Amino acid sequence: MDYSVKNVTIDDYDAIYELWSAAEQSRRALNPVDDSREGIARYLKRNPDTCFVAVKDGKIIGVILSGHDGRRAIIHHLCVHPGYRRMGIAGQMVSLAEEALQKEGIQKIFGLVFKDNETANVFWERQGYSLRTNLNYRNKSLNDQIPAGE
After folding, report:
1. pLDDT band for position 150 (cuts 50, 70, 90)
2. What is d(CA 97, CA 93) in angstroms, rounded to the nearest whole number?
3. Any idea what the CATH number is for the domain that residue 34 is in?
4. Cβ distance 102 to 45 under 8 Å?
5. At what angle do helices 13-22 and 37-46 cross, to 10 degrees?
6. 96-142, pLDDT tens digit by residue?
7. Do 13 and 40 touch, CB atoms closer than 8 A?
8. Domain assignment of residue 47, yes or no
9. What is the CA radius of gyration of the chain?
10. Is 108 part of a structural domain of the chain?
11. Nearest 10 degrees: CA dihedral of 113, 115, 116, 117?
12. What SS3 state is found at 11?
């Protein structure tokens, strides 16, 4: 399949949000603050070289947002349009993000995947991401607009 991959810019926001909205699992992960235009602009300002979109015929068909704190990296969002899955797009974007993070001196990456998202969990296992069972993920919302989660 013929498509290109480029770094994300804030100008891509509307198309990315539309893509996230087209995928059930991505919709579940969104919150109105961090995934707003302002939230993504803040994220891209800190991580300008580690986030990518896949583009076909001028339309964004995939996105990966990955960033780091100087020690560890996290993949926050990976989404491929349902009509373009199983074509290697997600794997290519993961590889690009890993290479970009490694260039920035990062040696370890983690990601969060819903336990009931079997397709994504199988994908990440195939990408070499192991399941950590010795940790509990804890979070605290500092904003009433962001749900604490289950």
Report:
1. low
2. 6
3. 3.40.630.30
4. no
5. 110
6. 999 999 999 999 999 989 899 999 999 999 999 999 999 888 888 78
7. yes
8. yes
9. 15
10. yes
11. 20
12. helix
Three-class SS of residue 1?
coil
Identify the bridge partners of residue 52 per DSSP, sorted by sequence position.
7, 64
The tally of domains found in the chain comes to 1
* Domain span at 10: 4-126
Closest CA to 61 of 123, 12, 101: 12
Say how far apart CA 72 and CA 106 lie, in whole Å. 6
Provide the token pair at 68. Answer: 């780091």
pTM as predicted:
0.90
CB atoms within 10 A of CB 108: 9
Q: Are 66 and 51 in contact (CB under 8 A)?
A: yes
Angstrom distance (rounded) from CA 136 to CA 132: 9
Pairing of strands 73-80, 109-111: parallel
